[in-house]
Amino acid sequence: MEWPLTRGRLLALATSSLLQPACDPFETGFAPDEPAEYFKARNVEQASPPQTLQLMDYNVKFGGGRIDFFFDCHGDRVLMSREEVEHNMAGLAKKIRQVDPDVLFIEEVDVNSKRAAFVNELQYLLDHTRLNYAVYGSQWRADFVPSDGLGAVDSGNAILAKFPLHDAHRLALPLRTDLSGIERYFYLHRNLLVARLDDAALTEFAPGKELWLLGTHAEAYAKDGTKKRHIELFTERMKLLAKQGIVVGSGDMNALPPGTLKTSHFDDSACVGDYEADDYSAEGDWLEPLYERYQEAIPLADYEADNAPYLSHTTSKDGFWNRRLDYIFSTGTLTEGLVHQDKAHGGMETMPLSDHAPLSAVLSSPEAP
Amino acid sequence: MRAWLKAMLPVVGLLAHSPARAEAPSSHWLDHSALTLAPKRLEVGLFSQSAYAINDRVQISTHPLWFFALPQAHAKVRWATNGCLYFSTSHSLEYPWPFLRLVTKEGTGGLLPPTDPPPQSLLIENAGLLSARLAPGHWLTAELGFSVGPRTKTPVLLDFPFLYQRFAALNSAIVPHAAVSANGPVDGAFDYMVYSRYSRLFLPDTPGAFAWESEVELGWSVTPRVRVGASARAEVARFPVGLRWHWFPLADVRIAW
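^ Those are the sequences you sent over. The predicted structure of the assembly is below.
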């Protein structure tokens, strides 16, 4: 419908553009549903349609490697130099090239943050791996965070692929309610990131079907049920997308699988208060609806038989992976699930690269044998 | 610097030798102009600088509210006038360490990371101002100047809106600026002030960094000695994070003796 710019509408437009910075002076807010940002590699490397899809999920800790930051409570660092960020990103890109995924879900990637020396880490990964296209949903954006010297932040989750991505949306998740208004204004605004993989990627794998990708990074520190709500909304979105085609839902759920033996008092916990995330004992069944309905990269029976090979997170660079937070769920068939813990499990040391180990799996079409 | 002075000399010469040179009328409530206050006049502002005229040529000022966080002294010296044109220079010296120390902290209010204590430093700004009378009471002023920030080491950039351009000299060799302003009466006890200043910031990691800050103020002289002002201050700046704009409203009360 035409919407002519009458004088009144021009005035309204000018007024709203003037008032917007006054209502949201540091631009931290998001619409409930908004288009995701698209990125493309500097040099696109043509890929052939695969028979199966290699999937990978990686929380890359904003290229912070194993620097001890203040929020980990193992150190006091706030900002990194460009050299540090690029060194850490080179390690992450090397690991990603080694796995060579067709689709990569990443969490905590900074595209324009002072703490990461304003390096666009998503573009870096596109330019240094065989992945060509990406969509991005910011989960923490502010022109300036007036706390701890953080300054400008734009950090979020992304989906990268060798083939183009379409129909990408950032769906806002509920905010924490256990923070003051001013803290909530500057705190993380988490999201569900949805995109559809280009049909050209499916000509061998699932011709005539649609493949939908769903990424997230659920709340970590809330004590008000926000994390549970985020997982529920992720599950509901999986169900909705499953009506349209094959779905892969992946991310850092900040929750442990059912059947986890150790759920609290982890030996790497150093935080008390705001950044404490050490007790999952009341969350044992939060992921059950996902496990009941979908396949996961690591079959639950395998995990329950032995938790250790599948643990994917620790805040301490001096320890070893001690809890599992990262997942790949799908309506398709997932095989060859692997948590890349170290050289023995994945062919390369991952402990120095991030506070999460990457997870990979191979996706076959639901009808595939 | 020498070239800049050389460029200004003809203007000074013109003014100093103008046949129309006379006792200059001094300004009231006139910010950002080459005019100085009437001798011995003191103007105290709540949120703006407070100024005192030592004589008809020299005016000193400071910011009482900010002084203990950001010790500072400013002086404006009128060098020449012919009654219609005024040429002055302004000079300011600030000691930013207490303020930077205040905002270098953990938690809320930490604008700079506590891992990098601020260095000892000074902020020095010098500018030349040329004011022209366009009509009775209406003044147009052009300003050219620069800031430097001698320091013991370069601190983390303070890229907070509006503070960015004020402290950028601590992160670069020099911050040149150009500004224009206009002041004058509107009607009866009301007056206006429009000010716009462009600063070029030579920051090593932010090519093309600049800040363009503008203010529009409407003043009301409640009595000849009390003025209330309402203004809007806006900036467009290229920060390390990108091009951004911000604005905020401001109110001020000034009293003169």
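The CA atoms of residues 131 and 141 of chain B lie 4 Å apart. The two ends of chain B are 37 Å apart (CA to CA).

Shout if you want it in another format.
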